[in-house]
Amino acid sequence: MNDGFITHPKNKRKVVESILADSIPRLAAKARLKFDKVREKNLLLLPEKVVVLNETAASILTLCDGRQTVNTITEKIRASLQADTETADTSALLDLKTMKADISEFLLEMEDQGWVVIHKHGSVDNKEQ
Amino acid sequence: MVQSITKNNNGAPPPYSLVAELTHRCPLHCPYCSNPLEMISKAMEISTGEWCRVLSEAADLGVVEVHFSGGEPLVRGDLEVLIRHANTLEMYTNLITSGIGLTTEKAARLCDAGLENVQVSFQAGEAQLSDIIGGYKAFDKKWEACKAVKNAGLYLSLNVVLHRMNIDYLDEIIKLAEEVGAERLELANTQYYNWALLNREQLLPSRVQIERAREIYEAAKARIGKKIEIIWVIPDYYAQGPKPCMGGWGTIGLTVAPNGAVLPCPTAGMIEGFSFENVLDSSLRHIWYESESFNLFRGEKWMPETCLSCELKHQDGGGCRCQAFALTGDAYAMDPVCQWSPKHYLIEKAVQDANCNPIIQSSPIIYRRYQLDRPASKKT
Fold this sequence. Notes:
The complex is a heterodimer.
Chain A: E1 6-7, E2 24-27, E3 32-36, E4 41-46, E5 49-53, H1 55-62, H2 70-84, H3 96-113, E6 116-119
Parallel strand pairs in A: 1-5
Antiparallel strand pairs in A: 2-6, 3-4, 4-5
Helix pairs in contact in A: 2-3
Chain B: E1 17-21, H1 48-61, E2 65-69, H2 79-88, E3 92-97, H3 104-113, E4 117-122, H4 127-134, H5 139-151, E5 155-162, H6 170-180, E6 184-189, H7 194-198, H8 200-203, H9 207-224, E7 229-233, E8 253-256, E9 262-263, H10 284-290, H11 292-295, H12 305-308, H13 313-316, H14 321-328, H15 344-354
Parallel strand pairs in B: 1-2, 1-8, 2-3, 3-4, 4-5, 5-6, 6-7
Antiparallel strand pairs in B: 8-9
């Protein structure tokens, strides 16, 4: 019903000013993740919008359950990538710090879209701003 | 990415969304209603069981979002059942409502059934004008409905159709959205089909009105920030070029009308001379991939020469077929909104008339009437 029916989170590579580290992200209440068997794609369902996710975006968002820090999420993603590339070229894998920066950047972009809510460490406030 | 997903038969991708137009019955009489002038009677509405089958077939086909719409979908007693069914099929559910009939208890039940998002329409930011435009004393009930949505913990969107009568009061509308705690506000300039086209002279705003409203919208967006997602739908007649038809004819979504007719968009039923297949006779899959009506305007083959040789065809897909039909009587014609259309003067004339000072309106506004609203008899 609107022009931006399908959009794609792009991973622009730029320097992130602050790595999120201990912050805890969770999917916004209005958003729902779904693996679509018809298209064999991970989708993010939102009011008036469907976002087609690539595999990395989907694995990160699946871990945004409001219980784990960005650090933990990054370690898990890296571990699963490592397992996938065990027999292949492991040197191609990004180092942990770069990966943390990339994931932080992605999550900030998702927060900006309103699809992810990020609780800063130590904050007990229920609402983000 | 749309192109890269599963191809089937005619190269059509599977649909993402379904507009389930449950009924044309509605307590409101908005003069810009997108329902057809000739509405489907209650007796012709398909049953709960048939709707459940439509939902199941839609899910199999690849539909992931359902918009329960109307008329007023709450006048049907089976909305809860249908939402629950859509939810078991893992579809994201939206309710598009006037708010009439959405009590706190009802909202809680629908939420329990799996409803995610409620879009409540408002006709203006305050009661008097809102009730005049809707032709029904609805404003206070709508306000109550918004409270019910919030109490149920559902996501609340407001939709306000903008036109000459309410566009000067945009600040009140934005204030209303803030007061009711809406998370999203759609400021949708009227699209001129069906009832709205009938009332175009009374509804089409002037350029000055639109510019002023756009400034108010932009200031509000800057002030409110991310707290409310505000959407501004540009008025077609004042746009640079035609809009793509709902992301393309038979490309992203489909509509099932109250009688089970399957349409590429909610207004396509207005195109005369085409027959649209019905879920009572064929499967949704067959209709989506194989029916003549869905394949008619897919791709570029149908396009007039001017569109074929135009590089903008990838952006606008040749414009809106319903608009082409509504204004020229030929669904294959160029969308008159396009400046290269030989019928573009029709748009220019309408815009010119709307910008006359003072505006002279030749006829009174015509309120939407459901065909069974018989003035002679009180029974419905």
